[in-house]
Amino acid sequence: MNAVVLGLQWGDEGKGKAIDYLAPHFDVVVRYQGGHNAGHTIFHEGKRYVLHLLPSGIFSPHTVSVIGNGVVVNPVQLVKEIEEIESQGIPVQNLELSIFCPLILPVHEQLDIIFEESRTIKIGTTRRGIGPAYEDLTGRRAVFVADLFDKDRFYKKAKPLDDYYNQRIRAHGGEEISLDSYIDSYMEVGKILKKFSRNTVYSLNNYFRQGKHILFEGAQGTLLDINLGTYPFVTSSNPTVGGVCTGTGLPHKALNKVIGISKAYTTRVGEGPFPSELSGETADFLRKQGNEYGATTGRPRRVGWLDLVVLNYTIMVNGVDEIFFTKMDVLDLFDEINVVTAYKHQITGETTTEFNPTVEYLNSMQPVLQTIKGWKKNIGQIQLFHNLPTEAKNYIRFVEDFIGIPLHYISVGTDQKQTIER
Ligand code: GDP
Ligand code: IMO
Ligand code: MG
Predict the structure, then answer these.
(1) Which pLDDT tens digit goes with each residue over 252-299?
(2) Element (H, E) at 401
(3) pLDDT tens per residue across span 174-213
(4) Strands (E), 252-333
(5) Which residue's CA is minimally distant from atom 10 of ligand 1?
(6) Residue 159 near residue 101 (C-beta atoms within 8 A)
(7) CA torsion angle for 37, 43, 46, 47 (degrees, to 10)?
(8) How far apart are CA 262 and CA 278, in angstroms?
(9) Is 270's C-beta closer than 6 angstroms to any atom of ligand 2?
(10) Cα of 112 from ligand 1 centre, angstroms
(11) pTM score
(12) Which of 78, 134, 175, 343 has its CA 20 to 30 A from that of 70?
């Protein structure tokens, strides 16, 4: 059985926690898009780790971890992450890096910064160079992992980018980064990465044919998808189910199950529309209870109620089979919990349950809320569904009835063990 774990909101849904819980059932864990903009938090033997590029299967010595061709790779950051995790006593073995991953170059990072600073309406990117690197891929001028192993070949491809982008960086008063200043360090990390690098399209297809169980690890979330998300406040890749095939080279038949991850409420980091967003004391309280600070950038996350209009849309476009529902425990202290069940047009008063990801549409809508009684008990140690307080069960059943698919896993804490499976 092969499954994808992907986010149904704006990222940070708890994909790391879900993958950590599910990984023992799989032989291979593969990232298929995004880059080190991701921050997946995992508690392993009581210790907290945040993974950015390494797949969350890295903690299991029996699991093969693959960085698929759809991932943009900053090779310096990848080597740093490998060294950091090894220095904490986790040996990085069974790692496969696709030779087809587009590289993030120092100029990409610099471009991300100057573009963001020159925009009047900011996107709030992670400033990791993700967007500019994917732009070079679609512009058919990217430099790839395979190019790291031959200095002349790398130079030939990177030089035109270096000339062109530094001109633009100069025009914006940014910090120029010449190829000569970093080529040797890229060659050095290339030597380290060579032993992990291969044609993962073939290795993954071989695992598939051998009947190995493959878990696809999504980064970001559906509403950050470049094609289906709240454009332009999105990332530059496809976290949605379509990204699985293009980002790995596996056929659609290699995917049997779509597991969608949703928080019991909603968060967003960065700019852009967020219909169920809260402000004031309730927001501060929810942020504090949920410890909602970005795992990659440390930014405070925007918070709001669970939006079922959003979930119905993201479940639909991904064909989600079941939900891994996270952070239920964060709502323990609320007297009342709201959920969004429809949107109402601010001028005409018309209501709808249709989600349209455009800024114009979302800014013209206000959420219609339904209030559900809170359970006011600590549920963090509960192991079985039937032991949950009645109000907590009611919340789960209300959501299930609305979305029409099961909340198969209920997460009530950061630890792998704090998961109720039904
Ligand atoms: P990801 O990017 O989707 O992997 O999510 P992040 O790791 O960025 O953010 C999720 C945060 O919520 C992490 O700090 C997790 O440790 C934490 N978390 C995950 N599940 C739960 C849960 O059920 N309860 C609580 N309290 N925290 C959780
Ligand atoms: P994980 O995998 C939450 C957001 C950024 C910004 C937008 C574009 O941990 O869920 P980018 O740097 O990708 O060009 O930024 O996307 N963003 C994320 N938000 N979780 C993430 O990853 C994110 N990765 C990018 O905040 O709004
Ligand atoms: Mg995250």
Answers:
(1) 999 999 999 999 999 999 999 999 999 999 999 999 999 999 877 888
(2) helix 390-403
(3) 889 999 999 999 999 999 999 999 999 999 999 999 999 9
(4) 257-263, 266-268, 302-304, 306-307, 322-326
(5) 14
(6) no
(7) -10
(8) 18
(9) yes
(10) 27
(11) 0.98
(12) 175
